[in-house]
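User: What would this chain look like folded?
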Amino acid sequence: MRTMYLTPLWFCCLLAALSLASCGNRREKEKQLSSTALPVQPDSVAQTTGGTPPSISTDEQKFRTAFSGFLQAVEGDNQELAKSFIRFPLQTSRQWTNEDLKNGNINKTAGNIDANEFAKYYPKIFHADVKRLLPEADEENFSLIGGKKIEEDYYKTLQQGTDPDSELFEVSMQYPEKNSAAESYFTFVFGRVQGEYKVIGYHGKLPVKG
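Assistant: Here's the prediction, encoded as structure tokens.
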């Protein structure tokens, strides 16, 4: 006949007390770690890999500052303020590819708009969809264009006249057309000119000039 051994009651109580104390210490430690956690840093426009976001570059800081002021001009429909954020002549031709250039059908200056033409073409650049959607732009709409090794001729052309070794950024938005299943889009390209970022190119689904 087997003998059954029962655990003493005092020993069970001791185990329960130790378990509660351990749980309480763990919760207190988690609370302390949570209260000292560093704030989450915003993502950089530049694409990266790894878990730690890089510090924002000086060019990116300047771009973001310029975009903030440019956005105020667009939201306020302030033509003169918008003009101050643009480098002229402003390229408004549709974005061409290197393949288009090989075919010899590209006139790189056809879409250029001078400062004295800006008022005439302002409504075609800052149309209703731009005014409506640009304030909603977020990180998904911002891009760093090729860093300092740009291969596309379109961006190389825009880069001419910008500060040496500066980066290009663009804000691009795609959206459905009203009463249609078709998609439309617009893009503003920014470059650093004499130390400050300005809009150096714009293109959309519909041509601005010509």
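The CA atoms of residues 89 and 114 lie 5 Å apart. If you want, I can go into more detail on any region.
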